[in-house]
Design goal:
The protein is mainly alpha-helical. It has a single domain, classed as Orthogonal Bundle (ABC transporter involved in vitamin B12 uptake, BtuC). Helices cover 70% and strands 0% of the residues. It contains 15 helices and no strands. The longest helix has 27 residues. The radius of gyration is 21 Å and the shape is globular. It starts with 9 loop residues before the first helix and ends in a 16-residue tail after the last helix.
Amino acid sequence: MASPPHALSSAQVSAALGRAARWNIPEILFWLVAVGAYFALPTRHLILNEIAILGLFAVSLDLILGYAGIVSLGHAAFFGLGAYTAGLLAKHGFGDPLLGLAAAAAMAAALGLVTSFLVLRGADLTKLMVTLGVALVLGEVANQMSWLTGGADGLQGVNMKPVLGLFEFDIFGSVAYAYSLAVTFVLVVVARRIVSSPFGLSLRSIRDNPLRARAIGIPVNRRLVAVYTLSAAYAGIAGALLAQTTQFVSLEVLAFHRSADVLLVLTIGGVGYLYGGLIGAVVFKVLQDFLSAITPQYWQFWIGVILVVMVLAGRERMTEKARDLVRRVTGRGRPTSGAAPAAGGH
């Protein structure tokens, strides 16, 4: 039987995915600006470090929300577990940063794997409640186990060793920002390869129509468990970065507003193209820093106003106009029908 006229051969799909995985000029410029900020803003390394960590946290949520369609109100559970894992290791003499990252990723991934079977059951509302419940339970456990976590007083005595045995963390955040930015860059590169692979293509198929994806032979549940576990590991690493660079962990890492903030970041930057989380983190932290300096008590109100204006104006329309501008600058033109989505695209 002849193939449908719109069907693509495996070679065409592979070529399209290869094109999608290529770096483009805006991406390169983004990272050059991030590196340049280290030298151009020497007094702002602390907030730059927060932006890098929040950006990685947002990327972790985008892996499940933007690419798999899994909504979460409790992503802080993995972030907080990673923070406490790295903090406790450092407190008890295992302060090597890379060891802390690996342990945090393993612990968060294990929690993600266990809870994924609960999260994937039921409708979106059920998923929201399960993810929120996991974060609330972990928060209460951390509060009750004050002999281990420090409870409301926070985890004290987090002593970090130099990064790679060479670079000691300083009070100005210089090493912290360079370290967090490097980790974020490596993980974003890995995430780019994943979402531009056949695995990432299958995730988008599941997000758009899980019944059809199952009908054509995609193992839907296994794919969703895998990406949920990966997302949890990324969030755990982000939490570990916060614990290591601040050398302090409190119950706030498991608070509900942590999950709400990262959702707000993705709302600002857009879901389904990785850099939405990174750009949203920059915008959110800059607005937070600027508005809190003007109105310390009401900065959240003004961010809410800005968000409402964005929704009314149509963020999708603004994003599409920006992408059209990028296409003109890079000379790529509009994607042709039938081609695989661009790297990080919908």
